[in-house]
Amino acid sequence: MNTKVNLAGVELKNPVMTASGTFGSGEEYSEMIDLSRLGAVVTKGVANVPWPGNPTPRIAETYGGMLNAIGLQNPGMEVFAKRDIPFLKQYDTKIIVNVCGRTTEDYIDVVERLGQEPVDMLEINISCPNVKEGGIAFGQQCQSVEEITREVKKHAKQPIIMKLSPNVTDIGEMARAAEAGGADAISLINTITGMKIDVNRRTFALANKTGGLSGPAIKPIAVRMVYQAAQAVKIPIIGMGGIRNAEDAIEFILAGATAVSVGTVNFWNPYAAEEVVSGIEEYMKKYQVEDIRDLIGAVR
User: Fold this and answer.
1) What is the pLDDT of residues 75-91, one digit of tens each?
2) Could you tell me which of 197, 186, 191, 129 has the C-alpha nearest to residue 153?
3) Phi and psi for 255 in degrees, rounded to 5?
4) Of 128, 192, 255, 295, which one is the catalytic site residue?
5) Helix ranges, the chain (H)
6) What's the order of all strands across the beta sheet hosting 192-195?
7) Residue 140's pLDDT band (cuts 50, 70, 90)
8) How far, in Å, CA of 245 to CA of 55, rounded?
9) What is the distance between the alpha carbons of residues 30 and 109, in angstroms, rounded to a whole number?
10) Nearest one of 18, 21, 159, 26 to 88, comparing CA atoms
11) Coil, strand or helix: which one is 198?
């Protein structure tokens, strides 16, 4: 039984990875699950300098999910390279670094510095819905997606994954723009912009007013968008959005995803990613699937 998948020349032992922003940089969960069981660990967003993030409150629970407006708080590239990369190198898993920035130059700065580090792929976050500058502007216009992809690709030593926003009219157009710019893969979906109001205090639940909705509530939208993107491009797709278990993950794979990211569920079930790996193996045995690649995009 073969569970290996290939992402732009990078071979993963299985298609399961963690979604950026829900898993720290791996160390935070390492006492609970075996990171070596995962196909890859995707780190929290890393910028060229430390970011303080948004004011609190910045997380709110919703029916079937959660809103967050963290604002990509992170310690910056220097701390990340010194502390987190050496920790992850202890494990038999691929390292994918999520890169964030406010300007094209910010992204390029991080990408160039990561070119000197032993990491396997870069996920370029051009779609964060709660950062006032940068990501959201890049992620919502085809021309901007293509341009920043092309610029980042010029400077990247590792394969690049462009993380796409669902807050667009046509996800297929965005996927094609990333492919045209030279992306090696795409990942989708990032969170959907939402809002919650506290009726007792008559104020916004988040200091930022709006935030990114994630969790099971968005899964049907995510599956639909992954399917549409798979029809639009030839590069590999990493699917995410509301995955709780192996059944959810397989749904994304059947829709056209080569790999999947497990995200919000980590907050209430820290063992989820490893359970998804085991569940996919059980599914393959049950239905006598010898190669996971036979499932990718099988539903047309």
Assistant:
1) 999 999 999 999 999 99
2) 186
3) -75, -15
4) 128
5) 77-79, 85-88, 104-114, 135-139, 142-155, 171-180, 219-232, 246-255, 272-286
6) 59-62, 65-68, 210-214, 192-195
7) confident
8) 32
9) 29
10) 26
11) strand
